């Protein structure tokens, strides 16, 4: 009996299986435009990042999972290697930078937009102006100001950190200062309660989720007077561009993957023409204003 054909058959099958296995391995490999990854996102900017991810996934064979948390929780997970891509309103501090340098990883930081911290009040409140000086004094425990109470999104959020730094304090006061878990809860609370001032990320007001739309209609967005200004400015795209709104902040994608993975591709996409158009449409300020082509007929 001639066994050669069977041996040849089995040899061919083994080669084919190896080839298919290698091909699957190549298909599953993460590159700058395909594969899957998780991005840690400061909850303040969740709406705009959701839009960016949706368009990016529609263009490329990529699957990006958004893990939205408070700023402190994002940093904690970032350092624990839960994900090596984070979106924050600040760069890494010296200690965090050194941590990655010890791992032989050089963080790649891409600025993608400018956002703002906004103050909101119930629609029944006719006063739509607030001074930054009063906010700082109130946070310092000096209650002889026109503010009855402040409501923050989360004690570990970037919003709290930002205002604490302005006031020169380490923790929010215990009297007449409240916090929830998210920006959405702050908007709802202010919409249902008169007399309190909410402190939220502007992105949530320009891009409210469907269940927030009715609540947003019941609030006023306050104009703010800076410490060195006599005028009041609303948190608009134009005022962010002119640098007149006193509570602006930049958004960064920080990539510590150490490889040419999706973090690099996504950052380039958001900082590119399509991504910046998404930022512009969202009401935030792009780093680069997308050009417009004029067609003459």
Automatic annotation (TrEMBL):
Superkingdom field: Bacteria
Keyword ATP-binding: no
Protein name per Swiss-Prot or TrEMBL: Phosphate ABC transporter substrate-binding protein, PhoT family
Biological source species: Flavobacterium segetis
Keywords: Signal
Domain PBP: 35-272
Pfam families for the chain: PBP_like_2
Signal in keyword set: yes
SUPFAM superfamilies, per the entry: Periplasmic binding protein-like II (SSF53850)
